[in-house]
Amino acid sequence: MRYLNTRIWMLIVGALSTLGALVNIIAAETVAVDAWGNLAGRELDIAVGLEQLWGLWFITSGVAILLLALLTHGISQARTGAVVIGLTFVGQFVAFSTLGSKGYLEESGAPIEQILPFAAIYLIGFIACVKGWNEKTK
Predict the structure, then answer these.
(1) Of 48, 64, 58, which Cα lies nearest the Cα of 11?
(2) Residue 132: which of 69, 76, 83, 85 has the closest Cα?
(3) pLDDT digits (tens, 9 = 90+) for 47-76
(4) Closest by Cα among 50, 68, 56 to 14
(5) How much of the chain is helix, strand and coil, in % rounded to 5?
(6) How remote is the C-alpha of 1 from its chain's centroid?
(7) Per-residue pLDDT tens for 107-118?
(8) Is there a contact between 115 and 89 (Cβ–Cβ < 8 Å)?
(9) 61 Cβ neighbours under 8 A, 6+ residues apart
(10) What is the largest CA-CA distance in the chain?
């Protein structure tokens, strides 16, 4: 299973998280209008702030995954990677679910074509880390 290299997949997941979060922060107003519908004034400000905060949280997750990929090795890398990637994925799912009950993406619907590639890469990264959970170091 040489395609499931823990370090490489952690770097991919970390980079993707960081870049995706930067795009979310830069395009926060567009993302907020797409996600919440036609907003104005204070409502728009709050929605933009939420998107920026979400992006900042996701950047910290991405950078943490990148640092773990670069600073840890072997079983420690696999275990910490599995935990951080897993918790980040679960956190995103909970956030989408919670905000969905408040009207998030109600009008436009969830952009499956955008979510699915991220989810697939996170899942592969998680599997790569779990695969190395008890692997013996050489």
Answers:
(1) 64
(2) 76
(3) 889 889 989 999 999 999 999 999 999 899
(4) 68
(5) 80, 0, 20
(6) 25
(7) 666 677 778 888
(8) no
(9) 17, 21, 84, 88, 91
(10) 60
Rounded to an integer, what distance in angstroms lies between the CA atom of residue 90 and that of residue 112?
Answer: 17
Distances (CA, A) of 71 to 35, 63, 79, 130: 37, 12, 13, 18
Six token digits for residue 114: 């955008």
Cα–Cα dist 33/99, whole Å: 14
Relative orientation angle of helices 41-71 and 28-36, to the nearest 10 degrees: 120
Give the CA distances from residue 10 to residues 46, 80, 108, 126, 129, in Å, rounded to whole numbers and listed in that order: 33, 10, 31, 8, 8
DSSP 57-71: HHHHHHHHHHHHHHH
pLDDT score at 72:
92
